[in-house]
Each structure stands twice: as C-alpha cells, then as structure tokens.
Design brief:
Layout (H helix, E strand, L loop, with lengths): L1 E3 L5 E2 L3 E2 L5 H8 L8 E3 L6 H14 L7 E3 L7 E9 L9 E4 L14 E4 L2 H23 L6 E5 L6 H9 L6 E2 L15 H12 L7 E8 L3 E8 L4
Parallel strand pairs: 1-4, 1-5, 9-10, 9-11
Antiparallel strand pairs: 2-3, 6-12, 7-8, 11-12
C-alpha cells in the first residue's frame, strides 16, 4: 500500500493536479500491481504522521501486509506508537473551514472555495496548546523522558518551536522545526518530520539526548506525535 501525504501535488513541475492520485502515479513508477492499495491523504502539516497511524492500523487489522507513507513538497532502532489527537474544544469548532457556495456558484463556482479562518494569533495558540497536550500525554503513557528527547516539529508559526518548548518546560533548542533542505528555501510542510529525522541522522543528537519525538500540528486543528529511538541508543 502507498499513502501519499503531500500538500503540493504538481505534475511536470508546474501543473497542480488531483487526479490521478499521486499515490497511484507513484505505484505506477515503482512497477506495483494494479491491485495495490493507493490513496492520497490530506491533513496539512499533520499529514505524515496521520498516514503512519492509518497504515499501522491497517497492518494490525490484516487489511494489508506492508506499505509506504511518502511525502514531498515543492518549497515555497525504530518508531514507537503514533498518537493522533484532534480538537477537544467544547464546541468542536475547526480553526479553518472551507466550503462551496452552491447557491451562488454560477458557471465558475466549482473552481472557487470559500475559506474561513480564525485570527492567526488564536489559531497558533490553539495549535501550541494541542501539540503540548499531545506530547505530554504521549510522554506519560509511554514512559518517555522529555529531558532526554530531541523534539522535532512542523513550523505552524515562525516561533512555534520556541513556544512549544516553553509550554513543555524544556530548555531552548530542545524543540526544533527543520527548514527546507539545501538552499531552496521555503517550508518542508508535511515532509518536516522526515527532514528533521534525516538531519538528526546526519549531524547526530545533541549531548544528553538519546531519542527523537516527531510532532506535527496543523489543520483541524489536529496534532500527532511518534517517538523514535535511533539504533544503538
């Protein structure tokens, strides 16, 4: 099974497309059978770990035997359990809402989506709080010592890593939000957990750290996290 969690889905480097799915196209490039299960999954910056969570559930349920979760964006010793959490606000409201105005859409209406968002300061504060609660519960439930953990997160806001560290009571630098690799600039978005993981493999962990915690937050709002202990640690 292949699950694609990318946000930017460009074909031939310039055309944004939804069909056929990127996962189906990847399966074709890899020479997989037509019966292979493939689908695209969109959950903004939380997409990568959401995909890992779904694949884990499907393998445990016996629906598939193995699979691959992939993500890539155009710039603008193993995993532990994956925890995914959505908003727990009493009203269940979402930070971002999009819909088609069918009553007045006209001939071009199907090409337009109305998007309503909360004020940026409110949205970011909700994401920081939700991510901190998710990390705290994960650490407690799985016996994770945050003092010995390098937290790698998506950049839901320019200062998201620092704010998350403050909410968790961690020293500066214990939470990092990786940028895009190379000199291209931009944000890695859904690929941030993988970029952070590869950076840690290449550069090594900071002194006093022996494990990673990948944290994603965005959309919904929703947050997800998964622990990773490098081999030999």
């Amino acid at each position: 099974m292949i699950v694609n969690t990318s946000i930017t889905r460009f074909k031939d480097g310039s055309r944004f497309c939804f069909e056929p799915s990127f996962a189906r196209q990847l399966a074709g490039e890899l020479g997989l059978r037509a019966t292979a299960v493939t689908f695209d999954l969109s959950n903004a910056c939380a997409g990568m770990l959401t995909g890992v969570y779904l694949l884990d559930r499907m393998i445990r349920a016996g629906i598939v035997r193995n699979g691959m979760v992939v993500s890539g964006e155009q710039p603008g010793a193993g995993f532990g359990p994956v925890a995914v959490r959505g908003t727990d606000d009493a009203d269940g409201s979402a930070g971002t809402r999009g819909y088609l105005e069918t009553a007045g859409m006209g001939a071009e209406g199907r090409c337009r989506i109305t998007v309503e968002r909360q004020p940026e300061a409110v949205r970011v504060e909700r994401l920081v709080a939700l991510a901190a609660d998710t990390v705290g519960d994960y650490a407690r439930d799985h016996g994770l010592s945050l003092d010995r953990t390098l937290v790698l997160c998506t950049r839901a806001a320019p200062d998201f890593a620092d704010r998350l560290a403050g909410r968790l009571g961690l020293v500066p630098g214990s939470v990092r939000a990786p940028g895009a690799p190379g000199t291209a600039g931009g944000e890695p978005l859904t690929a941030a957990p993988v970029v952070g993981y590869l950076n840690a493999l290449e550069r090594g962990l900071p002194p006093g750290k022996d494990q990673l915690l990948l944290v994603t937050a965005g959309a919904g709002p929703s947050a997800a996290c998964a622990g990773y202990r490098p081999r030999g640690r």
